[in-house]
Task: inverse folding
C-alpha cells in the first residue's frame, strides 16, 4: 500500500510533477480517497473518477469519516460505468 501517491498530470506534452495526490493506493489497483466532511458531494466522486482515469484503474473507494457508523460513509466508485450501471463504449 502506498500513501500520498503523487500522480503527475500530462497535458499537451507538458508534465506537471505533482498534479494530484492520491490518499491511498492499494496493491496498485484500488484508489482510496479519505474525507472528513459533513456529506459526500458529487465533486468528491468526480475527484476519485479523475484519479481512476488518470491511472487507468477501475475501482476506487470514497470514505467519509464524519459518520456515526463507518460503513455508511463508504462509497464505491467504478471507472467505465455510467450512472445506470451500463458499460460505456
Result:
Amino acid at each position: 500500500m502506498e500513501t500520498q501517491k503523487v500522480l503527475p498530470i500530462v497535458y499537451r506534452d507538458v508534465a506537471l510533477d505533482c498534479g494530484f495526490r492520491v490518499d491511498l493506493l492499494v496493491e496498485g489497483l484500488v484508489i482510496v480517497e479519505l474525507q472528513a466532511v459533513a456529506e459526500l458531494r458529487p465533486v468528491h466522486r468526480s475527484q476519485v473518477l479523475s484519479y481512476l482515469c488518470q491511472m487507468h484503474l477501475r475501482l476506487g473507494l470514497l470514505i467519509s469519516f464524519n459518520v456515526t457508523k463507518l460503513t455508511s460513509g463508504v462509497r464505491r466508485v467504478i471507472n467505465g460505468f455510467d450512472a445506470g450501471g451500463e458499460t460505456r463504449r
Residues 42-55 form the longest helix (14 residues). Residues 24-89 form one domain. The chain has one helix and five strands.
